[in-house]
Amino acid sequence: MEVGLRVVRGPDWNYGDQDGGEGHVGTVVKVDGASSAGCVDVLWDSGTKKTYRVGHESAFDLLVYDNSQCGVRHRGINCDVCQTEVIVGLRWKCNDCINFDLCTQCYMTDKHDVTHTYQRFYSPRSDG
Question: Running DSSP on this structure, what letter comes out for residue 106?
């Protein structure tokens, strides 16, 4: 984790709606440098600022929402779940299905089979 990453609820989330509710996004504003598996402070878009575990006590309260460069567009690649015509930000390609791509929102909300493996593309020219 690093300052500036956009995050959403992770697998160990147990903080109710202090993020503003399911699907809301926040920004990492401080990283605990005392250990490699620690905590971060997140400023939620709703205005709340709280501290969350990112490895501390083997728990992960957050998932990275999008860490691609601002303005990245995957032209000609649609999200096969929500049908967005141009994927903006990260693109997630299913390795188990033929020609199946997801936008970050659909990937993070488990809209496709979670037992499948995926490649993450930061830009149209990245290797994944």
Answer: H
